[in-house]
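Review form for a predicted model. The reviewer records the input and the model, then writes brief findings.
Reviewer: anonymous (R2)
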Amino acid sequence: MKLSGYIHSYDWTQNERANSLEDLATIGELEKAAVIDSDFVVILLPGGKGSHIELGIAIGLGKKVYLYSPTDEIYEFDKTSTFYHIQGVEKFVGTYDSFTHYLLEMELN
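Model under review:
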């Protein structure tokens, strides 16, 4: 996505392992600010609790959300979340490469 002219507002993979509650607070503030500053938010599943909190912040702020899942579990009633199916959440199931193409198509139009 960076090569397509988009700015990645926050890359959690660059975090060092948090060793204290202060570290967690700092990371949380950075992640919250990134969601606030984003034009849209991409959630990659399977995600942890942080991903789902970011999803909630994005939905609460009225941000467009792209939800990627490599499997169709998001459509299985006993495995899905109510928030995956609300207005403003665009769901995609498939390969990561096809998702990135889809995302670019959606945002370029």
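Findings: The two ends are 16 Å apart (CA to CA).
Further findings: The helical segments are 21-37, 49-60, 96-108.
Recommendation: see findings above.
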